Amino acid sequence: MTSKQVLGLFIMGCIVMVMAGGCSKENAVMKSEEKSLARQLNFDEKALQMLKDETGGTIQQLTAYSEDGSITTTEGISVGVPQDKAESVITKLRPEMRTMGYIIFLREMNFGGSPDMIGVIKGTDKYEVLRLMQTNGANYDLSTEDVIAKLKEWEARYPFELFGADFDWVEVDLKEVPSDIEAFAHEVHEFCPDVVEQGTETVEALADEISRRKKIYLWWD
After folding, report:
1. Using one digit for the tens of pLDDT, what is the confidence trace for 65-92?
2. Exposure check for the chain: N or C terminus, fewer CB within 10 A?
3. Domains of the chain by residue range
4. Is the separation of the CB atoms in 92 and 50 below 8 Å?
5. How confident is the model at residue 2 (pLDDT cuts 50, 70, 90)?
């Protein structure tokens, strides 16, 4: 057998292994301090390993906010991820994380200036993320509970998954676009004027954005 034939068989074998899952990427190695954090927070190490494999980032303790707006540590974890990977990582891991008793969400958007941050907390109630992050529209006299109440009202009509939240914004993934998207866009604008006044500029453009992206993004600047 010639060297070319040997090489050809080797390449063919590797292709077969890839198709069978035999050449899948190796797990990212968990550092001792990351394993220690998992034990400290009583986190399933498998959940951290899944996140590590998908992002390659360093697992850290999640920070959030106190009622006075000061930063505090929580019983959650976070990891940096390139902006163009954040959505795919969250969408991919969300179902399995849920079955394990965890909520995964976008914790921080940095618009390419530095990696975005993904957070994971224990629980099944997505609205606990907003309480943890103290998500509010204080400049419109909206408390965290006001934001939660409005989202629950919308969710009853238009089911969604939480995508991310921080101190002054929240984003959700709609499972289907509202049938009367123009009327819904007016509701969103009324509750969160900044999405139009500092964003899409018109309610019609907001309706188009919600339809195209199947997302509701709220922020109070």
Report:
1. 988 888 999 999 999 999 889 999 999 9
2. N
3. 32-219
4. no
5. low
User: Which residue, chain included where needed, has tokens 């999405």?
Assistant: 195
Q: In one letter, which amino acid is 140?
A: Y
Query: Confidence band (pLDDT; 50, 70, 90) for 26?
Result: low
Six-digit token string for 184: 């819904």
Contact between 110 and 84 (Cβ < 8 Å): no
pLDDT tens for residues 109-158?
A: 988 778 999 999 999 999 999 999 999 999 999 999 999 999 999 999 99
Q: Are 17 and 43 in contact (CB under 8 A)?
A: no
**CA nearest 185: which of 213, 164, 145?**
213
End-to-end CA distance of the chain: 70
Amino acid identity, position 83 = Q
On whether the CB atoms of residues 131 and 189 are closer than 8 A, the answer is: no
Q: Sign of dihedral through CA atoms 212, 215, 216, 220?
A: negative
Q: What is the DSSP letter of 179?
A: S
